[in-house]
Amino acid sequence: xxxxxxxxxxxxxxxxxxxxxxxxxxxxxxxxxxxxxxxxxxxxxxxxxxxxxxxxxxxxxxxxxxxxxxxxxxxxxxxxxxxxxxxxxxxxxxxxxxxxxxxxxxxxxxxxxxxxxxxxxxxxxxxxxxxxxxxxxxxxxxxxxxxxxxxxxxxxxxxxxxxxxxx
Length: 167
Hints:
single chain, PH-domain like, 2 domains, 4-stranded antiparallel beta sheet, 3-stranded antiparallel beta sheet, 4 helices
C-alpha cells in the first residue's frame, strides 16, 4: 500500500529533537567524553584544594545541565525549523511503500528504494518512526499516516525482523 504524507515544520523540528536527544544520550561522542573528563578532573582538583566551595560545583553542574537542556530543547528545534524553511524538498508530498525488499520513498523529484540490508537502525516514539540508512541521515515516517489507513505496526514489525531491534 502506498501512502502519501507531508512533513510539517513541527514534525521536522520534533524529529530533529528526538534524533538529537537519542543521539546525544545513546551515542555520546568522544568530545562529550573529553569535556566530561576535563570537567570531572577540574571538579576533583578544586574540591581537593578548596573544599569550602563545594556548593559552587553544585551550581556549576546545574548550569551545565541547563546548557545541555537548552541545546536539546531550544536550539536544535530552532535550527531544524530554519533548515525546514530552506529545504524545499522536505515540504513536498512524500509517498512511502513497504516492499518485500525494503522501503520505497517517493517524492515529486525522485524516489529511493532502501533495501532492508542497507538500513542501519530505526527508532520510534509516539509521533514518528525514524529510519536511519546512515548515522545522521534519517527518513521520517509520521505515525499520523495511520489516519490514511496505513497500519503502523507493520513497518515496525518489518524493521524489527530485517534490521533488528529498535536502538
